[in-house]
Amino acid sequence: MAHFAKLDENNIVTNVEVVTNSVIIDENDNEVEQLGVDFLNELYGTTDVYKQTSYNGTIRKNYAGIGDTYDTVRDAFISPQPYPSWVLDEDTCQWGAPVDLPVDAKRNGGTAMYQWNEDTQAWDAFVE
Asked: What is the mean pLDDT of residues 33-47?
């Protein structure tokens, strides 16, 4: 299945549509994004802007989610900045904290859970 993000006038994702792969394959067996865009606009009787996205990040860096922004310069979907101090990684187009997550974090097989504290600009141990 192919996925297409519908964009508003500010390039914000308002919806993600699923289209069967056969719709986007041309006569030479090539995947063509515009075929999916045309299919969706014909289906809904619109002239909306759609951009193809993929779960594995091979198209436009990240899978598009509702509320994400399509960045035309980077040709990437970028989620909203989670905290004012977080910075955008230009390669992955994902946000990262200015301080690395502690090495014992559960994320990579560790044992402790942490949450970001914007006031202290540090990771706090998460208490369940």
From this structure: 98
